[in-house]
Amino acid sequence: MQIGPRDTIVIACLVLFLGKYLNKKISFFRAYNIPEPVTGGVIFSVLFGVLYAITGIEVSFALELRDALLIIFFITIGLSSRLKTLLKGGKSLVLLLVLAVSYLFIQNLTGVGIAYLTDLPSVTGVLGGSVSFSGGHGTTIAWVPTFKNDFGISNAMEMGIACATIGLVLGGFIGGPIAKFLIKRYQLKPTEEKPVAVGVRHGKGDDVEMNYNNVLQMIYFIFSTAGLGIAINELLAWVGLSLPSFVTALFAGIIVTNLIPVFFKKFNWQPEKSKALAMASDLSLGLFLAMSLMSLQLWTLTDLAGPLLLIVLAQLVVISVFVIVVVFRVMGKDYDAAVMSAGYAGLALGATPTAIANMTAVTKKFGGSPKAFIVVPLVGAFFIDLSNALIIKFLLGVFG
Question: What is the mean pLDDT of the chain?
């Protein structure tokens, strides 16, 4: 059953309505900062899985709008990023990048260890390591032909997609509890009252002031910045450098928000305080994740239940320990470090949007952390993919 673009958006909205309702009514979800799109999206994907099990009907969605929503989201993050915040995050960016690259080796060695215990080829552990978890669906699809043709792993696609799918879900579930544990244990608070980068603080959503002018301004700057992002992407492609569209969208937002005060000094430009921009950010991210999670085809995972369970459990335990013991401490043991820890947990198991969703859920409850919303996306959106490709190729040479 093919669901068209209009109905896909309608169902995605229902996913968000359900997630918000359940998070409001069930204290567990709220207490442990489970992102609303994750709550609703997982339930819908289970329902579609049950439908397939009973009737054999396979539901698929038109996801063309999903990528546009991701670009809009990163534009809003860029527009909310002041240069002084970026400069403050410079050291943190380098530290998290070093930790993330180091963890790629740990993640792959964990997968190789499980492969050894289950009598699977060693290279299968790399597939169940950074290829599918840190890399996600895109990296998995790109490397599957290598595992099939060079190493004879006939079910590489099924196994890789299964790990990436489960990682996406679990990445959205563990970040919030980790942040809550760290914040409560070390009595952490933001150093000053900072605006929430995505959405609004819990309990303050009903009195958010938005009017025709600031909503119109928000729409104008989002789509104008999108044009700049496209131009940057085309320029980079012309010189032979390829970057994901959402990365150049983030850069475009940063450029616009820092140049406007320079060239238009009388213009009252305060995007980091714009409730309209924060709500647009929250909505675009929520719909993106809702569409991603509700479209998961869970029935494709059943044939790999045994080895898959061991791999997932091992990766879940290892990333949790690494984040709490290493990442949080190296990043400074402060409130920003706790938020970045939640984001990195989602990044290492799922994807950059999962990381952002984790940090959004945490900051809505405890307070803003602008630095985290710059550092984690930059590490996840650009540096990790490049490092991961080199490490995968190296480890396949070692274990192959």
Answer: 81
